[in-house]
Amino acid sequence: MTVRGPLKGVILAAGYGTRMAALTQVVPKPLLPIVNVPTVERILQAFKGVGITDALIITGYLADAIEAYCGDGTQWGMAIHYQPQTEVSGTGSAAAMAAEYVGDQPFMLTYGDILLDAAEYQAVVDLYQQPGCEAATTLNRLKDVSTGSAVYLDGNRIREIIEKPPPGTSTSNLNNAGVFVFPPAIFDAIARTPQSIRGEYELTEAVQTMVSDGTDVRSHVIPGVQYDVGTPETYMKTNISLIGTFSNSDTHRATADNFASPNLDIEPPVAISETSEIERCRLGPNVCIADGVRIGHSVSIRNSVIMPGADIGDGASLSFAIIGRCANVSNRARLQGRAEEVVVAGDGKTAE
Known about the structure:
With about 350 residues, the chain is of the alpha/beta class. The chain folds into two domains: about 10-230, Spore Coat Polysaccharide Biosynthesis Protein SpsA, Chain A, CATH 3.90.550; about 235-350, UDP N-Acetylglucosamine Acyltransferase, domain 1. The protein is about 25% helix and about 30% strand. The chain has nine helices and 28 strands. The strands form seven sheets. Strands 5-4-1-6-11-8-12 form a seven-stranded mixed beta sheet. It has a five-stranded parallel beta sheet with strand order 14-17-20-23-26, with no helix packed on it. The chain starts with 7 loop residues before the first strand and ends with a strand. InterPro entries: GMPPB_C, Mannose-1P_guanyltransferase, NTP_transferase_dom, Nucleotide-diphossugar_trans.
C-alpha cells in the first residue's frame, strides 16, 4: 500500500439550519452540542483521530460564533483556518471555497452537521490508500433515499449517483453518508457540474462528474448509522445513541462529587456539566445537562437535552424534550414528547 498524505481537513459549516431555527438563534448548527460538546469539536476530534491536524472550516451563518469557539485550534493540537461563504448555493459551491487552501494535497471533507463513529473515518482513509483508488466516499443504508442520493456500485466502485430520486424509483438503498476523501481534481469536476433542478451546485453531482470521467471513486458502506443534527428528532436520536459512548468516568465523578444527595435519583447514562446546579430530582436515562443549567426541586427528566444556561423550574417533568440556550421551563410544566415528535423550547423562550 502506497501511503499518500498528509491529508488536510475541510468542514462545510455555512448553512442556516432552517429546520433547527428555534435552537440556532445564538449559535449555528455546528455548535449544537452532542453530549455536551459542540458538533464541530466532535468532528475535529474525528479528524485528529486519523492524523489530520490542519483543517479549514467554511463558514456562513453566525460565522463569528464558530471562530470564537474554535479559535486557531491550538487547544486541540491543530491549525484551524476559516473561509467565509458569502452566497450559500449548495454543497458543491461550498466545497469549491476550499480550493486555494487545499492546493495540491488530498483532503477529507465532511458536512458540519453530521458525525460518524470514529472507526468510519479511518475506514475511508484506508480505502483511499488502496492501489488505484482516486477518491473515496462513505455510504449508509436508508429505507428511503429520496431525500438524499441513491448510489449504485460495482463492487465498491461507484457506477452512478442520482441526487434526490423521486420516491419509489430507486433500486438502491445506499445513500451518501457525508464523509469523503478527495484529490484536488474534485474542484475541476465542481466547475464543470451544472446547477441541479433546485438551483444549487451539488457535491454529489460533482462526484458523478468524476465517475463519468472514468475516475476510480470507491465507497465504504458504514455498518452503523449516520448521526446528524438536522432536525429535532434526529438531533435527539444522535444524543441518545452517543451518550453511552461519550459519557465517561469524569461525568460519573462529577455526579458523585457535586450532586450527592439522598433525594437525587440518577439512572445512567447521563452527562452532567460540573457547572450545573441540581436540586433533588430524578434524572435519566439519556439526559444531557450542559454548562450553567439550573434544575429545581422534584424535577423529572428523561431522554432530553438541556442546553447551556437553561433553567428548569420546580416540579417540571420532561421527556423527549430539547431545552434551548437560556430557555426557561416554568414550575410544574409538563413537556412530554416522543421519539417521533420531540418537544422544543427555543433559545431564550419560556415553556409553561
